[in-house]
Structure formats: structure tokens, C-alpha cells
Design a protein that fits this description.
By secondary structure, this protein is an alpha/beta fold. The chain is built from 13 helices and twelve strands. 41% of the residues lie in helices and 13% in strands. The protein binds pyridoxal-5'-phosphate (PLP). The site of pyridoxal-5'-phosphate (PLP) has 14 residues, from helix 4.
Length: 395
């Protein structure tokens, strides 16, 4: 007691710290510059200008046009909007949608909902690394296919998808391509034209911006319905007084993420690989989930045989370490992660999984502490496991 507990935050795929310079940029829009951007007086002009500035920064970062960026309340809303509104707008052409088994629940559950509305949804399998198979994608295409929604990079295992190839296939067949880039944006350079992306979802709080603000990129010419009906905000497609401080913070976060990307991700990759190598080398009966190299710079995901991920998380927490056993949305339920099952892990191995996601603040010294802690805890948990005892006896 008395001594401050150390905190090692390795759950940056769940959310990130809002960067101090982002908070700084937002503050005036709560206090002095609180005008409603839709009002006519000059005072409100500052709010309007701030929104335009953020929209320009974001558009530029993707090679998009400013009028193609629509602010939403986050990644989940953007995913819902892209899928539901495209499904509705293109219903005359067909009712078939293709997605994958490893999407975020914001896409998967929207797919389930669309099935209840009469759409047919194909959920593509992935290989053992979590990559979709392009041949399977091509085979799944029907004359009635109107939308392909495949995530850019996976939030649990970090695997990056062949987005350019997917975009080319979609374009060749005249099918819309939506990608959930919530994890990738800010970590991987993205150009919407080069990758043939028609719609793209992002969320500020995954890249050191504030929570509750996201955007959907919608390519000009894509027919898409309004998501929120009301005022004329966001080109009449998403009504409601704009979240001005959130939008300003998002713009600042994107500017910062683009400026620091190269150096930041190179450093994180080095630390990520150091962590992966040490864990695989020093903890027996352990595997890495996700693609070994083609993965997010900050993502490591392990399965430790003979242990329960939840027990591991609780004990890591006692050592001041924040990790995750899957996605934040899965924790609290006892089902193993749908992503780990999709890459072919048996239930009992999927249950013993741990995701650690680094930030630019992560240090090697912290990772050394984390590896030591994992080694100690895994050994302790295995020594209490009848399965492990059985296994060792048979060796
Ligand atoms: C976090 C996340 C979302 C949801 O974003 P919110 O802003 O929290 O709604 C969607 N997709 C992926 C891949 C994510 O990691």
C-alpha cells in the first residue's frame, strides 16, 4: 500500500489515450467557440470553419474529396450505415452481400439483421492466418451481389487483408466495396482510389482521438440513403448538430497520426516482434495467432495451451497489465472469439488466448516486465490444471 500501482496499457485495439495535443485542440470548442455550425451569425462561422478544416485533413489523408467524408458517432455507426443504406439503395439490382467470418460485430450483426430483412449474406472463410481467400471471394460472387464488406485489418489477430485485390475484384464485377478500416487507418497508408474502396469506416478513439466520433467515406456517385433523418447536416445524409469538439479532435488526431506514422509504426513493429519472439521462445506450448508478418504494427495475439484466458487476464491485471482475451465486445461472455474459431483453433485453445496491442508509449522495459509476468502466471495456472498434469504425465 502507499506505493502507486504500475499501469501497463496494452489494449490499444480497444481504445487509445486521447493525445494531449488533441485535447488541447478540442478545448476551445467546448468553452469559447460553442456556436452551432448551422447558425447564420458570424460567431458560428468559427465552428463551421473548424469542421471544414477537419474534413479536409481527413479527406487528404485518404486521397479522397472533402465532400466524400461524412461524420458519424463512431465505427459501429459507420459500418451500420454503409451496409444498411447500400443494401437498401441497391435492392433493385440484387439482394446478395459478401462479408467474412472474422469481421467486427458491427459488420457481422448488421449482416445478420440484413438477412432477416430478406438479404442473402455469404460469410467467407479465412485461412489459418486469418486471410480471406481471393478464389473463394470470386466464387461467391453472383449476378445479384451488390456489396462486398471486408475489413482492412482484424482487431483481434491483426491480420491485414489483400484490400487492393479485393477492390479490383469488386470493381471488375461492378460491386460496391466497403471496408472497416477502424484498426488500419492511422497505422497503414490508405489511398481510396488506388485500393478501389467505395466506402470506408473509421473511428477517432482508435487513433488517439476522442470517443464517439467516426466517419464514413462514401465515394462520389455511390447511391446511399440518409442514415439519420432530420436537419441538413452532412449533406442531408446524417442529420443532427455536429459534434464540433469531437470533429476538431478527430482532425487533430488524423493530422498527428499521418505525421508520425512512419516512425511510430516502425518502432512499434520492432517492439511487437521483440514481444512475440520472447513469448514464443520462453513460454512452452504457445502459439501466435494471425499472420506472422502481414499484421498490424502494434498487434500480438497468443494462445497458451492448458489455461483460461480470463484467469490470465485477471492475474495480469493484478500485475497492473491491461490486455484482452478477444474483442471488448466478446469479453463478459464465455464464448470463445469467433475470429479464433474461424482460423481453425479448437475451443479449448481459443479459450487460452491473450491479445496485447502496443502504443507509441510502450517501452521495451514494460514488455520485459510483461513477459516475466506472463511466464510466472502461465506456469502457475498450468500447475493448477488437471489437463496439463495429464498431458505432462503422458510425455
Ligand atoms: C473498435 C472497432 C469498431 C467499432 O468502433 P466504435 O467507434 O467503438 O463504434 C469497429 N470495427 C473495428 C475493426 C474496431 O476495431
Amino acid at each position: 500500500m502507499g506505493e502507486e500501482k504500475r499501469l501497463i496499457y496494452l489494449d490499444n485495439a480497444a481504445t487509445t489515450r486521447t493525445a494531449p495535443e488533441v485535447v488541447e485542440a478540442m478545448l476551445p470548442y467546448f468553452t469559447e467557440l460553442y456556436g452551432n455550425p448551422s447558425s447564420v451569425y458570424e460567431f458560428s462561422q468559427k465552428s463551421r470553419e473548424a469542421i471544414t478544416g477537419a474534413r479536409e485533413t481527413i479527406a487528404k489523408s485518404l486521397g479522397a474529396k472533402t465532400e466524400e467524408i461524412y461524420f458519424t458517432a463512431g465505427g459501429s455507426e459507420s459500418d451500420n450505415w454503409a451496409m444498411k443504406a447500400a443494401a437498401e439503395a441497391y435492392r433493385g439490382k440484387g439482394n446478395h452481400i459478401i462479408t467474412s467470418k472474422i469481421e467486427h460485430h458491427a459488420v457481422l450483426h448488421t449482416g445478420d439483421w440484413l438477412e432477416k430483412q430478406g438479404f442473402e449474406v455469404t460469410y467467407l472463410d479465412v485461412d489459418e492466418n486469418g486471410t480471406i481467400k481471393l478464389e473463394e471471394l470470386k466464387k461467391a460472387i453472383r449476378p445479384t451481389t451488390i456489396l462486398i464488406s471486408i475489413m482492412f485489418a482484424n482487431n483481434e489477430i491483426g491480420t491485414i487483408q489483400p484490400v487492393k485485390e479485393i477492390g479490383e475484384i469488386a470493381k471488375e464485377h461492378g460491386i460496391l466495396f466497403h471496408t472497416d478500416a477502424v484498426q488500419a487507418f492511422g497505422q497503414i497508408p490508405i489511398h481510396v482510389d488506388e485500393l478501389h474502396i467505395d466506402m470506408l469506416s473509421s473511428s477517432a478513439h482508435k487513433l488517439n482521438g476522442p470517443k464517439g466520433i467516426g466517419f464514413l467515406y462514401i465515394r462520389r456517385g455511390v447511391k446511399i440513403r440518409s442514415f439519420v433523418h432530420g436537419g441538413a447536416q452532412e449533406r442531408k445524409r446524417r442529420a443532427g448538430t455536429e459534434n464540433v469538439p469531437g470533429i476538431v479532435g478527430y482532425g487533430a488526431a488524423v493530422e498527428r497520426a499521418m505525421r508520425t506514422m512512419e516512425e511510430r509504426t516502425a518502432r512499434e513493429k520492432g517492439l511487437r516482434d521483440y514481444l512475440i519472439d520472447r513469448v514464443l521462445r520462453e513460454v512452452p506450448y504457445t502459439r501466435l495467432n494471425g499472420h506472422r508478418t502481414n499484421r498490424l504494427p502494434n498487434n500480438a495475439n497468443f494462445s497458451f495451451q492448458f489455461i483460461e484466458g480470463e484467469s490470465l487476464l485477471i492475474m495480469l491485471d493484478m500485475d497492473g497489465i491491461c490486455g484482452s482475451s478477444g474483442s471488448a465486445c466478446t469479453s463478459g461472455s464465455l464464448d470463445p472469439s469467433h475470429v479464433l474459431l474461424a482460423i481453425g483453433l479448437p475451443h479449448e485453445i481459443a479459450h487460452g488466448s491473450l491479445r496485447l496491442t502496443l502504443s507509441e508509449e510502450t517501452t521495451k522495459e514494460e514488455l520485459d516486465y510483461v513477459v516475466d509476468s506472463i511466464k510466472k502466471i502461465v506456469e502457475k495456472l498450468r500447475n493448477m490444471s488437471p489437463l496439463y498434469e495429464d498431458f505432462m504425465r503422458r510425455q
